[in-house]
Specification:
Elements: E1 4-5, E2 7-9, E3 12-14, E4 21-26, E5 29-38, H1 42-59, H2 64-80, H3 82-93, H4 97-117, E6 124-127, E7 133-141, E8 144-148, H5 156-167, E9 171-175, H6 181-193, E10 201-203, H7 208-217, E11 223-227, H8 230-243, E12 246-250, E13 255-259, H9 265-277, E14 287-293, H10 297-309, H11 329-344, E15 348-351, E16 370-373, H12 380-383, E17 390-396, H13 399-407, E18 411-412, E19 415-418, H14 422-431, E20 438-439, E21 455-456, H15 469-472, E22 474-482
The structure holds 2-aminohexanedioic acid.
Amino acid sequence: MAKTYKNFVAGEWVDAEGGATYGNHNPADHNDLIGNFAASGPRDVDRAVASAREGLRLWSRVPAHKRGEVLKRAGDLLVERKEELAEGMTREMGKPLVETRGDVQEAIDTAYYAASEGRRLFGRTAPSELSDKAGLVFRRPAGVFGIVTPWNFPIAVPSWKILPALLCGNAIVWKPAQDTPWSAVKFVEILVEAGLPPEVVQLVTGFGSEVGAPLVAHAGITGVSFTGSTEVGCRIAAVCGEKGKRVSLEMGGKNAQLVMDDADLELAIEGVLWGAFGTTGQRCTATSRLVLHDAIHDTFVDDLVRRADDLRLGDGRKEKTDVGPLINEDALRKVESYVRIGREQGATLRTGGERANDGELARGWFYKPTIFTGVDPSMRIAQEEIFGPVLAVIRVRDFDDGVEVVNGVRYGLSSSIYTRDVSRAFRAIDRIEAGITYVNGPTIGAEAHFPFGGVKDTGNGHREGGWPVYDFFTDLKTVYVDYSGRLQKAQIDT
Ligand code: UN1
């Protein structure tokens, strides 16, 4: 009998009101039921927000450094349980163990960074324009945040949002992706065990329309931090805009790796294999376009196809697996439909292009690593986010042509250039329209202490990771102290 998991609201593990649940299965094996999870609704959201308001009252008064100590303990618990979490996460969403270990590590890094921020959380001072008067700026907790997260990084991406939000003294209501509720339950267990006052964090599992929508629209929340598709993100922003709430959006990508004729080609091949097929292409930072200089195009593609064919598909819990399954049937259908579109629009399918269903693989949502060549930059497979193991190869004449192709999409998250020419590398850094550019590295692999986010339709100007995320989760309080003993009038007594 599969276990039934609950929401975490007001310091208790509770069923959804009405008791509804949904089953969550292993994407590598449909017969493997991981558990039944609360299928929550608007009333659960109401209770969660009410509790979070109480949590905010308590937690916002705790000194930032003490809040940091709780996050430090959470980091320590993540270290202790890294293997168990990685195993469960792979079972839940499919990516290989080496990657789920990395996912937990990203949360550990974020926890320790957040813990240390408890001794900074810097405000500012500036001289007043008047004598015997001081001007100071403090950071204050901002309120209750709705946290809406995806399934591809079930602990890392939530940690980017939740841990800074908590360090800043806020309370949260978290709606994790419906496909990864187990990882969310485990993460909340750790936060509570680390000593977080329980009302500070609420977990409400279920579906977007039943939980996400009422959460985002709830009058009791201050703002939303969201990672997911551009379509959903823009709908969330519209609701937040109408109600005057802040919102941080991390959305789609169509990231390109540009390989010049002077590049270390072996390094570039390793990079694109990891960038395009790691996490089965299901990252917002995944390499979904490979832009190749004409002079190296043909040999590069031949080598790449051979190496892609050697990648081993399978259950991510087997140490030899390179590529796991897609997350669910909808994802598989989406990939299939883009492969059809690629063919119809005239691209050449060099490898893959079909489900992998030999033996055990038939029980999961496996799809072969797929490479299209002869792709015109205007084709849909070169423009739209597929979120699967599909790589579109585009041939370019020279550097300028390459940069134009890299920039010729609506998104601007990650990017990469392989070249040995330092001037070219810096020209690319200048000209590529993206929040992240790698030189001689793949488009994936952001580190927790650097800003993460994109330009154009990828985001709305906020950054996660590093120090900028602390701006989003705080309010500034400006304080003037007049110690002159008389009425001084700004702008008048000059
Ligand atoms: C995502 O795909 O939503 O840089 C985040 C990377 C990872 C994070 C990806 N560290 O690829």
